[in-house]
Design goal:
Chain A: It is found in: Cell inner membrane. The complex is a heterotrimer of chains A (589), B (304) and C (305). Chain A is 34% helix and 23% strand. Chain A is an alpha/beta fold. In chain A, the strands form five sheets. A six-stranded mixed β-sheet of chain A has the order 7-8-9-3-10-11. In chain A, strands 19-20-21-16-22-23 form a six-stranded mixed β-sheet, sandwiched between helices. In chain A, strands 1, 2, 4, 5 and 6 form a five-stranded antiparallel β-sheet that branches. Chain A starts with 14 loop residues before the first strand and ends in a 5-residue tail after the last helix. Chain B has eleven helices and no strands. The radius of gyration of chain B is 24 Å and the shape is elongated. The two termini of chain B are 22 Å apart. With 305 residues, chain C is mainly α. Chain C has two domains: 71 residues, no CATH class; 210 residues, Orthogonal Bundle (MetI-like fold). Chain C has 13 helices and two strands. The chains are: A alpha/beta (589), B mainly alpha (304), C mainly alpha (305). At the A-C interface, helix 2, strand 7, helix 4 and helix 7 of A face helix 9 and helix 10 of C.
Chain lengths: 589, 304, 305
């Protein structure tokens, strides 16, 4: 932006964004009231500001207003809206266009859909350069594209530039997306959930690429639903809820001494080793003097879980040496595929919670399918309650089906769209209509819903409510073991806390064994007794959760643990020292 | 018309736990879901039009006093007037009366053809949608062969073999429509077959046939009324084209396509015989399409 | 990718062969003797015997079938007993005007549809409503009625274009427009809906964030995505154009395949109708094959495997 007609205040060179009293509304939506209100933001060069909030908090439209991309019909107003000293409220469309890509680059979630799938990586990365005539000539652009791809850590960039997004792995794809955002060297990068849906090890690498840009002097606005992700990289944090700022300040301050109850609730709802054996959603911060030095700090107080029903230690599920290899279609010239599962053995005792952690492609879903009897293993055997479960006809399994139940990740797609809540649960019950209805109501109440939900369609329920229905359906069969496949991955952290609490409470009360599969190590740490670490189709490590997580023996487990975003180690753990003091006096209600 | 409001990514306020806490009871009735859509003026007019159309097909004499077949030759080619709303044709027959009486032919032939397409399309489509590769390939090739003959020409072949007449063009249009329905049903079957609620149903102790009859079949069949309404307009169009060519009902039958074919000879002197029957066809097709689209939108996400 | 193309070509051959077989089977499944069916309305001594001899009706069914296949492979569709001419001659002489009309109509339809979609997809509410209304009206109008209306307006009232015939460029303007508009309506509907769906994709936001203008986004990125469903529809549209050409010829009294076929249908000249239908099927199969291969070229995601 070389012209100066909108220059309002000469400002220090490093101030990129200076916004005060921003409001964004949509005509006809939200009853005419603005969705975002009274929002302040400054970003300087070399600074990372994080915008954190759950879905519906308005964080994305706020960030996109910096590009005037909040959506059709967005009405943006502010007391002050300066982009590098220029009054953005007076920008015309052409001014915004000139600024996009050159002053501000946008990185979104999931490069598979955020890069044009019909164009090559090279075309996508180079587009910003040709569009703004930053560089002239095919060769200059191509050279720059290769340069940028190398800069974000993509190996063999010449080859990758000719490929399409679907041909790259998730991590490389996301780097390519970053490359397309920074190709024209913008001063400000807006990253909207840039690592959501990536594996933790890949997430760490992508965050490192972004951090590198900040070190080189770019400003970074990082949007995330996950406090942990921003903890390690952000200088300042802004917590949003319902379109308003509820908390803001230096990262360390906000995470260690959260002032606003919502921030505290968010922090306390994050499952971890410290929360084990307690209810997450009940947590609150108490200001208490920590014993010893007399300093005042925050203490997380949580309610304890009910005492577990004692169990007889009988084996519910035995998995012995199962392997599975998917038949690949002729893939000429590529390396032979690894087996999806390779000699996996484990057992689950009655009333025990066994966690399975692993990244995508580790074989954990294949393992779940085999345990559920949806897929036959190539080798090995599964036994349920001492009886053969794999390698027998489905008709033979059917008698035992009620003993093993299932809670999927996406509850909605597991319900027949024609079914109401009552029908969904009734399918898993036997008996006459009258007793069925009473049972269903009882089950709904058990999962925190009520008779009023009987006639509702699951699609009209919230994500948390759907998962509750799913739990009620599994419990209807009074199973001995439930396979939970990423049951909380799609939920916001506070809803996740409620669902995890419900699961662990019911588990303790009913003594049902759980096989709990998750990519989130914190969740597994919180809920599981024992953990199995899956990597490339094998169990690389197993044992009691505390032991595996605090003292990993395997290299991969160690790498995995060190990639977890640093909130525990950086803040909660240090504040957890205080929290542990609190925990020891935790009121058991 | 096609008014779409675009979803805003970050506006999931309805799902916000604060607005909609997990215990809250909030009854949602079906009427509440449909009602706002019924208010769209285009849809309301279409439904009213189709209702009137059905009445004219059932009781044409309630709408006009004139005979559709017998006219006063002396009153030939009179322009529209209060007495003859749509004017009279060459033989002095009232065009309005003929258009009204023509409704039943167009609807009947259209629905008949549709029934044939649907019956075969559903059965073959479900077969093709099964996991069995042999079934899928075999049935899909049948669709390929049938659809390789352009509809009008296939119908001409059928008429050559079977002769002219209403039933025969219904059969002709019906056969030509089989691959269209069959493919949609096939895609819908595959969608349902691969849905989580079907692949996981075995976990809840259901047998193969139980899963098919309880989950697969009903969810495939919900698509049928939707597809039928969307395509009925097409079928009526195809039928009128064949009648226009003289392959269907013969003069003096007051069928819309036949009337338009007759009007071709008098176009130079009279516009009305060539306008009103065509308007009737177009409005009927538009009304069916709009209603079909509205139904389709209600099923969005559940259809292939 | 090559293996996909080859397998697609093989499938097309199978379909073409199957359509010939279907025609043969239909002929034999009909009640009555073949020679009666093939003779149509004609009646003169020795005709039945001549037909039986030409079609080798005294031989076994498989032998007849093989003979039928071989003859069609050589481009011999038999004799029209009504016209007393080889079918290939009858059809060949009338093929060009129809193909001309269908091609011109198709081209016009594509141009109109793409222009309409590019200009109105995702734009202001008013222009979108007008566009979708126009599309709906065109897609719902019978070809022959549209022809009648255009005739009334431009030939009888304004006298710009001739009423009928096939001489000079003026005589093809109204027929090709007649043929194009309903197809354009349908195609524009599909294109626009696909474009609007694509405009909601996250990658469009990414492209916007690079400072690319709206028209360029549509032309460079969105249109290509919208072409995918349109290409899928393509085969069906080609069939529609061929069939529509027959009807259009009748409206405008143009010579061509349509007029020949219609005459053949009414005189039960089975060999001619059979030849036209099979020819149309071959054209249709060939065109859809090309379109399907085009699909592979547009979408790199399908090229893998």
């Amino acid at each position: 932006m070389t012209d100066k007609p909108y220059l309002v205040v000469p400002q220090p060179d490093d101030l990129l964004i200076d916004i005060e009293g921003l409001s964004i509304g949509f005509a006809g939506a939200n009853g005419g009231a603005p969705i975002v209100r009274n929002f302040d933001l400054t970003i300087r060069r070399g600074e990372c500001v994080a915008l954190v909030g759950e879905s519906g908090s308005g964080k994305s439209i706020t960030a996109r207003s910096l590009l005037n991309l909040s959506g059709d019909g967005a009405e943006v107003d502010a007391d002050r809206f300066l982009i590098r000293g220029h009054d953005a409220l007076r920008f015309r469309q052409s001014d915004w266009r000139r600024l996009r890509g050159t002053m501000t680059g946008l990185v979104m979630q999931d490069a598979l859909v955020s890069l044009d799938p019909l164009r090559t990586i090279g075309q996508e990365v180079g587009e910003v350069l040709t569009e703004h005539r930053t560089l002239r000539g095919r060769h200059a652009v191509a050279a720059r594209v290769i340069d940028v791809l190398r800069k974000v850590g993509i190996p063999d960039p010449e080859h990758r530039a000719t490929q399409y997004a679907h041909q790259l792995s998730g991590g490389l794809r996301q780097r390519a997306l970053i490359a397309s955002a920074i190709a024209a060297d913008p001063d400000l990068i807006i990253a909207d959930e840039p690592t959501t849906s990536l594996d933790v090890t890949v997430q760490a690498q992508v965050l490192a690429v972004l951090a590198e840009r900040v070190r080189e002097g770019a400003g970074l606005l990082l949007i995330s639903h996950d406090l942990a992700v921003v903890a390690g990289i952000a200088d300042r944090v802004i917590v949003m809820r319902d379109g308003r700022i509820v908390d803001s300040g230096a990262t360390a301050d906000v995470l260690r001494r959260p002032r606003h109850p919502y921030t505290r609730q968010l922090l306390a709802a994050i499952p971890s080793a410290d929360s084990k054996g307690h209810l997450l959603a009940s947590a609150r911060f108490d200001v208490a003097s920590v014993e010893g030095d007399g300093a005042v700090g925050s203490v997380i107080v949580r309610e304890r879980l009910p005492v577990r029903k004692s169990s007889d230690e009988a084996l519910v599920l035995e998995v012995e040496g199962i392997s599975k290899r998917y038949v690949q279609r002729r893939t000429a010239g590529r390396e032979p595929s690894l087996p999806a599962l390779d000699e996996v053995s484990f057992a689950v005792k009655a009333g025990e919670v066994v966690g399975i952690v692993g990244e995508s492609g580790s074989g954990k879903s294949t393992c779940a399918k085999i345990v559920l009897g949806l897929l036959a293993p190539d080798e090995g055997e599964v036994r349920l309650l001492g009886q053969r479960w794999s390698g027998v006809a489905e008709a033979e399994r059917r008698a035992l089906r009620a003993r093993l139940q299932y809670i999927p990740q996406d509850a909605l797609s597991s319900f027949d769209p024609r079914y109401r809540v009552a029908d969904v649960i009734a399918e898993n019950l036997t008996g006459d209509a009258r007793t069925k209805r009473d049972r269903i109501v009882a089950l709904l109440e058990q999962v925190g819903l009520n008779a009023g939900h009987l006639g509702r369609y699951p699609r009209s329920l919230s994500g948390g409510q759907r998962q509750r229905v799913s739990i009620a359906r599994a419990l209807a069969a009074e199973p001995d073991i439930i396979v939970c496949d990423e049951p909380v991955s799609a939920l916001d952290v506070s809803i996740q806390a409620q669902v995890l609490d419900l699961l662990s409470e019911l588990q303790a009360r009913l003594g049902t064994a759980l096989l709990f599969i998750s990519h989130d190590l914190g969740v597994v740490q919180h809920i599981a007794d024992r953990v199995l670490v899956f990597h490339r189709g094998r169990i690389v490590e197993s044992g009691p959760v505390d032991q595996v997580f605090s003292n990993p023996a395997d290299d991969y487990t160690r790498a995995l643990l060190s990639s977890i975003p640093a909130i525990e180690s950086a803040f909660v753990r240090s504040s957890a020292n205080a929290a542990i003091a609190g925990l020891s006096t935790a009121r058991s209600v | 018309m096609n008014v779409q409001t675009r979803p805003l990514a970050d506006l999931s306020i309805a799902l916000d736990p604060q607005v909609n806490p997990p215990g809250a009871v909030e009854p949602v009735t079906t009427a509440a879901v449909i009602a706002p859509r019924l208010l769209s003026p285009g849809l309301a007019i279409s439904l009213a039009f189709l209702f009137v159309l059905l009445l004219t097909a059932a009781f044409p004499r309630a709408f006009t006093q004139f005979d559709p077949l017998i006219g006063d030759y002396a009153l030939g080619l009179k322009p529209p007037s209060w007495e003859h709303l749509f004017g009279t044709d060459r033989l002095g027959r009232d065009v309005f009366a003929r258009t009204i009486h023509g409704t039943r032919y167009s609807l009947l032939i259209g629905l008949g053809g549709m029934a044939i397409s649907l019956a075969f399309g559903i059965v073959l489509g479900i077969l093709a949608g099964q996991r069995n590769r042999f079934l899928d390939e075999g049935t899909s090739r049948v669709f390929d062969v049938l659809s390789s003959f352009p509809g009008v020409l296939l119908a001409m072949l059928v008429v050559t073999f079977l002769g002219q007449g209403m039933l025969n063009i219904a059969i002709a249009v019906g056969i030509a429509g089989i691959p269209k329905f069959g493919r949609v049903i096939r895609a819908q079957t595959q969608l349902v077959r691969d849905a989580d609620y079907v692949t996981h149903a075995v976990v809840y102790g259901l047998g193969r046939w139980q899963i098919f009859f309880r989950h697969v079949l009903p969810n495939v069949l919900v698509a049928v009324p939707v597809i039928a309404t969307v395509y009925i307009g097409n079928t009526i169009l195809a039928v009128s084209g064949l009648s226009f060519l003289g392959l269907g009902p013969q003069p003096p039958t007051p069928e819309w396509g036949v009337m338009l074919a007759e009007s071709r000879d008098v176009l130079r002197v009279a516009w009305w015989p060539g306008v009103f029957p065509g308007l009737a066809i177009t409005l009927t097709v538009i009304a069916f399409t709009l209603v079909g689209n509205a139904i389709q939108k209600r099923f969005e996400g559940r259809l292939a | 990718m090559w293996s996909r193309i080859i397998s697609r070509l093989l499938t097309s051959l199978v379909v073409a062969w199957a359509s010939v077989t279907a025609a043969f089977l239909a002929l034999h499944a009909l009640p009555g003797r073949i020679q009666d069916i093939l003779a149509g309305d004609l009646e003169y001594p020795g005709l039945r015997e001549a037909i039986a001899a030409e079609w080798g009706l005294d031989r076994s069914l498989p032998a007849q079938y093989l003979d039928f296949l071989l003859r069609i492979l050589q481009g011999d569709f038999g004799t029209s007993y009504v016209l007393r001419q080889p079918v290939t001659e009858v059809v060949g002489s009338q093929l060009m005007p129809t193909v001309q009309l269908a091609l011109l109509g198709g081209l016009l339809a594509i141009v109109i549809a793409v222009a309409l979609a590019l200009l109105t997809a995702g734009r202001g509410r008013i222009s979108r409503q007008i566009a979708s209304f126009l599309e709906l009206v065109f897609a719902s109008t019978p070809v022959f009625w549209l022809g009648i209306l255009l005739l009334m307006a431009f030939s009888f009232t304004l006298r710009w274009f001739p009423v009928s015939g096939a001489s000079g460029w003026k005589s093809i303007v109204l027929p090709s427009l007649t043929l194009a508009l309903p197809t354009a309506g349908l195609l524009a509907q599909v294109l626009r809906e696909a474009m609007e769906k694509t405009l909601d994709q996250p990658f469009v936001t990414t492209v916007r964030s690079r400072g690319v203008g709206e028209l360029v986004i549509r032309a460079r990125h969105v249109l290509r995505h919208a072409l995918l469903p349109a290409v899928t529809l393509g085969g069906w549209l080609i069939g529609g154009l061929l069939g529509g050409a027959v009807i259009t010829e009748k409206v405008f009294g143009r010579p061509g395949l349509g007029t020949v076929t219609l005459g053949a249908v009414l005189t039960h000249d089975v060999p001619v109708v059979l030849a036209v239908v099979l020819l149309a099927a071959f054209i249709h199969v060939a065109a859809s094959t090309v379109l399907d291969i085009l699909y592979l070229l547009i979408d790199p995601r399908l090229r893998a495997q």
